[in-house]
Amino acid sequence: xxxxxxxxxxxxxxxxxxxxxxxxxxxxxxxxxxxxxxxxxxxxxxxxxxxxxxxxxxxxxxxxxxxxxxxxxxxxxxxxxxxxxxxxxxxxxxxxxxxxxxxxxxxxxxxxxxxxxxxxxxxxxxxxxxxxxxxxxxxxxxxxxxxxxxxxxxxxxxxxxxxxxxxxxxxxxxxxxxxxxxxxx
Length: 185
Ligand SMILES: Cc1cc2nc3c(=O)[nH]c(=O)nc-3n(C[C@H](O)[C@H](O)[C@H](O)COP(=O)(O)O)c2cc1C
Prior knowledge:
The chain is an alpha+beta fold. The chain has a single domain (22-168), classed as NADH Oxidase. The chain has seven helices and four strands, in the order H-H-E-H-E-H-H-E-H-E-H. It has a four-stranded antiparallel β-sheet with strand order 1-2-4-3, sandwiched between helices. The site of flavin mononucleotide (FMN) has 12 residues, from strand 3.
């Protein structure tokens, strides 16, 4: 990139962002490992507070484990029957450092690990998007139950799930606020 970056580069980048939308219907088609590796490579490169890189990803492809998450790992009130169609569930976990993730937030009031995982997770999502895959962040899940189903150690806190697969239909992003609405005077 560097000095050679042009209007065309930024337009392509913005198009990617406009093209991404939460996907709630998936094809019965496997995700290639090399595409998943690219997503993980993108996540790995994310910035983080004190460069602690607290993100850990559990990639769940196993049909039985996915079925158990769908049956018993989601919170009530927001049915997500489509999750059972997604060939991959990415479990976004944080492995926390006492100074950066417990003591510093007591002083600043900011939970840096949540920011870090959000950034890394969205790197993953955008790498998926550019490869023709689709995703949906899922925050409405039972943290303890999913940890049990996957036998994850207690040191890992699950912050979000992300469904991943090929979209069954064209995606449409819902309306977003205008720049004037998000700028503070
Ligand atoms: C942290 C977070 C948690 C979310 N949790 C859920 C969820 O539990 N179920 C769901 O269907 N969508 C969930 N979403 C997707 C949002 O509904 C979606 O991003 C929003 O409506 C904007 O749509 P877009 O992603 O297509 O731009 C979540 C998104 C984020 C960022």
